[in-house]
Amino acid sequence: MRRTPIVLAATAAGLAGVLTFHTKSARLALGGLPQASATTGSPATTTTAGSSPGRGTSGTSSPPTSTTPTTVPSTTATTVPSTTPPTAPPTTTTTVPSTTRSATGPLVNYNYGELSVSVTVSGNKITKIGIASLNDGGNFRSQSIDQQSIPLLEQQALQAQSANIQGVSGASYTSAGFAQSLQSALGKLGL
Q1: Higher model confidence: residue 69 or residue 102?
Q2: What is the H or E stretch that residue 125 is in?
Q3: What is the distance between the alpha carbons of residues 123 and 97, in angstroms, rounded to a whole number?
Q4: Which three-class secondary structure string do you get for 99-114?
């Protein structure tokens, strides 16, 4: 009975402290985040890309420039008959070029900030996944979690070849936002 007023006063003081707490937004520079990528060469495709994303003085980054694929037409090769008559008809080989396409998912609010994922595919294979933009509010803990979890999320998506990833323990919100933006980018590419 004597503890009731003390518990109520402490609860009211704690609630008042939580309600008056305000966070300050700041932008995270993406220079500290390594990009996970898998490179595959395609002799029939040449991709022209813009320069790396620019960095403003406030640490903001602009989304990457979309790539414009240039496809080389397919070639046809035929066998030339020798002086002796062939036993089989001449064969024709056609090389089908693969196309490289890129898309950027929407900016997704994941409760501790906002992120957007960019995806590059060659044919139906995901070849590169990266962060197009990231704003985690300047919270040191959020920055630390993002720097550790995003490269793992990129690797998981490359291995899964889809947005169906397990996520990273301790980074549930970042994992969910990453998967949501990635799924939208893949949807834009028809995958």
Answers
A1: 102
A2: strand 125-135
A3: 9
A4: CEEEEECCCEECCCCE
Q: What element of type H or E holds 144? A: helix 140-160
Go through the domains of the chain in sequence order and give each one's CATH number.
99-191 (3.90.1010.20)
For tokens 């040191």, name the residue: 140
Among 18-32, 37-51, 133-147, whose mean pLDDT is lowest?
37-51
Whether 73 and 49 have beta carbons less than 8 Å apart is answered as no
- Give 103-136 pLDDT, tens digit per residue: 999 999 988 899 999 999 998 899 999 999 999 8
**What element of type H or E holds 14?**
helix 3-20
Nearest CA to 100 among 79, 69, 65?
Answer: 69
Nearest-CA neighbor of 149 among 122, 168, 123, 177?
168
Decide: 100 and 122 in contact? Cβ < 8 Å: yes
For residue 128, the model assigns a pLDDT of 95
Cα–Cα distance measured from residue 35 to residue 31, given in angstroms and rounded to the nearest whole number: 10
C-alpha of 177 from chain center: 11
Among 34-43, 132-141, 175-184, top mean pLDDT goes to: 175-184
Beta bridge mates, 48: 68
Prediction pTM value: 0.51
Sign of torsion over alpha carbons 116, 122, 124, 128? negative
